[in-house]
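Record type: monomer structure entry
Structure origin: computed from sequence
Chain ID: A
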Amino acid sequence: MLLQACSGNADYSPKPRGFYRIIYPKKSYREYTGGCPIDFQYPTYTFLEPDRRPDARPCWLDMQFPQFNATLHLSYQPVTSKKIFNQLVEDARTFAFKHTVKATAIDEGLIRYPDKKVYGIYYTIDGNAASSSQFFLTDSTRHYLRGSLYFNSQPRLDSIQPVLNFIKKDIDVMIKSFKWK
């Protein structure tokens, strides 16, 4: 009887690897008009909170994407001299290019909205880098804002690519709607 029970005609095959189901929220935006000298539109399915790190300064904000386990860190700094401006721009470049160890490519795109006095550079970082998107915005004389997107998980570009593309569209809306006060 034992041999009879083991010789069943069960056809076993391993199950294919599954993927998480991603439910994208409807795109809608609201205006940020907080106590900082900046205005912009950001997604309604995110929330803004002050940066809680001990070294955080006023107007450093974290835009949380809870359903995607991601954070867009925004740090505003006033520009008080040409030397500080040059240092801030160089820091943005250095922070973006620190990802070259894991990145397969880093592309720079110019941001220019002269009617609103918004200029900057958008860094697209391909590969399994910790941050896939970074940018800075400035009016070149008084204001500077840096942004960097991080997912709170191990960076695997093939896994986060659909969500990354979705969030990048929100970042584009934010940049296009950006104004200095």
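Annotation 1: The first helix runs from residue 2 to 6.
Annotation 2: The chain has a mean pLDDT of 90.
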